[in-house]
Write a structure and sequence with these properties.
41% of the residues lie in helices and 20% in strands. It is of the alpha/beta class and 294 residues long. The structure holds FE3-S4 cluster.
């Protein structure tokens, strides 16, 4: 069995930064409780680790005055900062710079009088956050058909959730042209997402099966699953090594591996280790792991 790892896979810059900030907070802050606003990443093993360091995830900041709260890479609505201030909460802001860019564009164009359209999942925290930067007045669309429901506007500004596919962006913005006199398009799909999706597609075309590692609730991982399925019918989405479908893949020749932006390297390594038994194979895999973006 030949195992090939996607050129870009695993932890992205934004998630890595958020993790570093959380570990630093656990080491440095001893006089007040530390929380994350929602799970820091979609990976239960990492969440367990943070809990063992005393960092729990909360959903309701009003119940935790005078604490320290880490804002995760997905970001939060603008009103969150005022609310935290009112409750004496210290914020460690791990909003990914790529997400901050989308928030700022949405706010700037909202204040300029544009109708804002966000292409993404309305239930995803990143989209909820961006929506909050334009006073929850944006239209959120996640399918081409959703555009039919939108009214016509003179000026429209459209931004993307950072993890959507290029294909969805192209289809939606093309259709949106019909709904606006002036359309300002900001393709805010982040570079880490683009790289992971491109290398996933390239690899899926060349292998007999694909293993996509990442949280079952992770948006960017689910996009990788969708892309992989398009080119490789034997695509398996797994969150941990225990879910590896050894029976289904044991007789196949070439297996591709990719991983979502919130999948730690050690989980990728566990999966590779289980699939490869010989020392030589392990060495090869370790070499390939070096290519995974840290
Ligand atoms: Fe940031 Fe992109 Fe990761 S927006 S959190 S670098 S997937």
């Amino acid at each position: 069995m030949e195992i090939i790892i996607a050129k870009k896979a695993g932890f992205c810059f934004g998630v890595k930064e958020a993790m570093n900030k959380a570990f630093a907070a656990a080491n440095q802050i001893k006089d007040r409780p530390i929380y994350t606003y929602g799970p820091l990443i979609h990976n239960s093993q990492t969440i367990d680790k943070l809990e063992s360091m005393g960092i729990r995830s909360i959903e309701d900041i009003e119940k935790h005055p005078n604490s320290t709260i880490i804002v995760r890479s997905h970001g939060v609505p603008l009103s969150f900062y005022d609310l935290a201030d009112r409750y004496g909460i210290e914020i460690i802001d791990a909003t990914c710079p790529f997400v901050r860019k989308v928030q700022k564009i949405a706010r700037e164009y909202y204040l300029k009088g544009y109708a804002i359209v966000i292409v993404g999942d309305p239930n995803h925290p990143e989209v909820i956050g961006i929506h909050g930067w334009c006073e929850n007045k944006a239209s959120i669309v996640q399918r081409e058909e959703d555009i039919d429901q939108l009214p016509h506007h003179d000026k429209v500004c459209v931004v993307a959730q950072t993890t959507i596919t290029q294909e969805l962006w192209d289809a939606i913005t093309k259709k949106l042209e019909e709904k606006a006199k002036i359309l300002e398009k900001f393709n805010t799909i982040c570079i880490a997402t683009k790289d992971r999706q491109t290398s996933c597609a390239e690899l899926a075309k060349a292998v007999d099966a694909m293993i996509v590692i990442g949280g079952h609730h992770s948006s960017n991982t689910q996009k990788l699953v969708q892309i992989s399925k398009k080119y490789c019918k034997n695509t398996f989405a797994i969150e941990t090594v225990e879910e590896l479908p050894m029976e289904e893949i044991k007789n196949l020749n070439k297996i591709g591996i990719t991983a979502g932006a919130s999948t730690p390297d050690w989980i990728i390594k566990e999966v590779i280790d289980k699939m490869s038994n010989t020392d030589q194979h392990n060495n090869e895999m370790m070499h390939m792991m070096e290519e995974i973006e840290n």
